[in-house]
Design a protein that fits this description.
Layout (H helix, E strand, L loop, with lengths): L1 H6 L4 E5 L1 E3 L4 H17 L4 E5 L7 E3 L2 H15 L6 E5 L6 H10 L3 E3 L1 H12 L8 H22 L5 H4 L12 H7 L6
Parallel strand pairs: 1-3, 3-5, 5-6
Antiparallel strand pairs: 2-4
Length: 187
């Protein structure tokens, strides 16, 4: 994301997807909605949601809830098409995680913990003769192939048709949470 930040410096808003452990998660989600709405109205074209601020006093907002809250608010206001929702998260590890985040409205996903894990395994020489770039490319290819398989089973041929479509069901979430953050999704 560092190259991304430098290139789009003026049109980017970084949203901290953490909250004080003594505060309310719902309150932080409402703040994220307001921050994203204001940023888009001010002309920001790239929202970056990040959970890198986790500490002993700050917990991560579940990134799926953050995306759902922001995406649904921007769609309701008719301004979703003016900004991308880019996610820098420790939660995306496998194909299913990527599919859920994209289906909720994410445009780009940076799975920094997964990439760091690949790097640590590479440094321990667990990948044989592969160099680090090849290891990362294999990971990306496996995610891409998995997403293609998921979308093809649904009859979707392009990612833009899948993004934000909420083409999956929720299990274990209350109807009020689904209605507020994932409108139209089956529960």
């Amino acid at each position: 994301f560092e190259k991304f930040y430098k290139f789009f410096k003026k049109n980017i808003k970084i949203l901290d997807c953490t909250f004080n452990i003594k505060d309310s998660l719902k309150e932080r989600l409402n703040e994220l909605r307001a921050e994203s709405e204001l940023a888009v109205r001010e002309g920001v074209e790239h929202l970056v949601l990040t959970d890198k601020g986790v500490s002993s006093k700050r917990a991560a907002v579940p990134v799926i809830l953050a995306i759902g809250a922001i995406n649904s608010r921007l769609v309701d206001l008719g301004i979703r098409g003016f900004a991308s929702i880019n996610v820098q998260t420790s939660e995306a590890l496998d194909t299913h995680s990527f599919a859920v985040l994209l289906g909720a409205g994410a445009t780009v996903i940076n799975p920094y913990i997964a990439l760091d894990s690949i790097n640590q395994r590479y440094e321990k020489k667990l990948f044989g003769k592969l160099n680090f770039k090849e290891c990362v490319n294999r990971y990306i290819k496996s995610i891409d192939n998995g997403l293609l398989k998921i979308m093809s089973k649904m009859g979707i041929s392009v990612l833009s048709a899948y993004r934000g479509g909420c083409n999956f069901e929720t299990l274990g979430l209350s109807r009020s949470v689904v209605a507020e953050y994932f409108p139209g999704m089956a529960s």
